[in-house]
Amino acid sequence: MRRPSQMMKLLITSFFGVIVGFLMGITFPTLTLTKMNLPSSLFPSIDLAYIEDKYSDLSRKRLFSAWSSTKSPKLKSDIPDPPYSYNDTKIWVPTNPRGAERLPPDIVTPESDLYLRRLWGDPNEDLKIKQRYLVTFTVGYDQRKNIDAALKKFSDNFTIMLFHYDGRASEWEEFEWSKRAIHVSIRKQTKWWYAKRFLHPDIVAPYEYIFIWDEDLGVEHFDSEKYLAVVKKHGLEISQPGLEPYEGLTWEMTKKRDDTEVHKNAEERNGWCSDPNLPPCAAFVEIMAPVFSRKAWRCVWHMIQNDLIHGWGLDFAVRKCVQNAHEKIGVVDAQWIIHQGVPSLGNQGRPEEGKQPWEGVRERCRREWTMFQDRLDNAEKAYFEASAHNNVSSSRPHR
Q1: Tell me, what's the pLDDT at 143?
Q2: Cα-to-chain-centroid distance, residue 35
Q3: Antiparallel, parallel or unpaired: β 133-139 and 158-164
Q4: Which domain of life does the UniProt lineage start with (predicted)?
Q5: Cα-to-chain-centroid distance, residue 204
Q6: How far apart are CA 30 and CA 19, in angstroms?
Q7: Mean pLDDT of residues grouped by 10 in the chain (399 residues)?
Q8: CA distance 23 to 21
Q9: CA 178 to chain centre
Q10: Hey, how many other C-beta atoms are within 10 angstroms of the C-beta on 140?
Q11: Alpha carbon distance 5, 29 (integer Å)
């Protein structure tokens, strides 16, 4: 048996060992994975949740920080700490765009653009030129030669955007301009379907004018810069080039005239115009080749219905987006185009009940025109009825 003195020595030694261990533990910093020189390939195999459960003093944040530091060549000291807490909710700016109220106004970027940028270098040096105008065509590959001829009439001041309804976007690489164009390829859709989804006013905000054109237009007598010079001279918010007369021309308003630079009204057949300042005698352009100012497009875009994809009826309604529309909507005669009447999009339809593909497409166009007009009439009626009710309520004396 051990003597009492030996037992006492053992107890004293153990006690001092515990004390020294405790003091060392609180003196040295906690061991973290950031101090360990381990290969980064090791970390994906580590179960972080298991480590956190087993060693509760190591937080998930520290472990993920350690993993990130091994993946990045940047030292942690190179990354500045934020000057505020991420959980700080003191910022609230009700005038910011909806959903961005928690952001400081100077970081909010509510609008975008379609400018193409590099993947390298200084972002401030990306753009040699910022195009002022946008031209879009809804195209099929079979009309490539006509589109090539058309785009040669548009200067470098234009961003080019092609909407491909046949899915053959990659085949346009044969044209040099195609490499700087924006291509959107979704099968069997119309230009108004594309416009509603890809030409939001906040996306095209940098452009002073937006051309939304069909693919079957002859442009031998058209120059984009000269056209816009006339548009600006006459203060047109919505316009189109004059149409060279052809057999299928429907409206007198859009027919090219030889005796004027611009015209804003026309005489139509008896009974077609209830008012000489209303469509189709004035404040009217067709939907095949419209040109919108930035301000007008911001309104027109909101009028386009998601499900009415052919746009029939829009030409009679765009006047609602322009004050004094009979003065601000017109046809430019000095720069004119030819409607070739190629039924390419009509052929994208499907034969049903013995009808040709184009027949079904045309029937839907007419149906959409009626539906759009009904919706617009009902919306205006509801608005004026509500306004009248509110006016009556506000005029009653309060008791």
Answers
A1: 95
A2: 47
A3: parallel
A4: Eukaryota
A5: 7
A6: 18
A7: 62 67 57 42 41 42 46 50 60 95 96 96 95 97 96 97 96 95 96 98 98 97 98 98 89 95 94 92 97 98 97 97 98 96 73 79 94 98 91 68
A8: 5
A9: 20
A10: 18
A11: 38
CB atoms within 10 A of CB 178: 19
Q: What is the pLDDT of residue 357?
A: 76
What is the pairing mode between strands 262-263 and 329-339?
antiparallel
Q: Which residues pair with 109 in a beta bridge?
A: none
Q: What's the one-letter identity of residue 234?
A: H
At 53, which amino acid appears? D
- Cis peptide bond upstream of 279, omega within 30: no
Tokens at residue 272, please? Answer: 């077609």
Torsion of CA 228, 229, 235, 238, to 10 degrees: -10
Please write down the HEC assignment for all residues of the chain.
CCCHHHHHHHHHHHHHHHHHHHHHHHHCCCCCHHHCCCCHHHHHHCCHHHHHHHCCCCCHHHHHHHHHHHHCCCCHHHCCCCCCCCCCCCCCCCCCCCCCCCCCHHHCCCCCCCCCCCCCCCHHHCCCCCCCEEEEEEECHHHHHHHHHHHCCCCCCEEEEEEECCCCHHHHHHCHHHHHCEEEECCCCCHHHHHHHHCCCCCCCCCCEEEEECCCEECCCCCHHHHHHHHHHHCCCEEEEEECCCCCCCCCCCECCCCCCEECECCCCCCCCCCCCCCCCECCCCCCCCEEEHHHHHHHHHHCCCCCCCCCCHHHHHHHHCCCHHHHEEEEEEEEEEECCCCCCHHHCCCECCECHHHHHHHHHHHHHHHHHHHHHHHHHHHHHHHHHHHHHHHCCCC
**Residues composing the chain:** 399
Residue 55 has a pLDDT of 40
CA distance 210 to 182: 15
- What amino acid occupies position 378? N
Location of structure tokens 């090791």: 42
Q: Would you say the pTM of this structure is higher than 0.85? A: no
pLDDT score of 342: 84
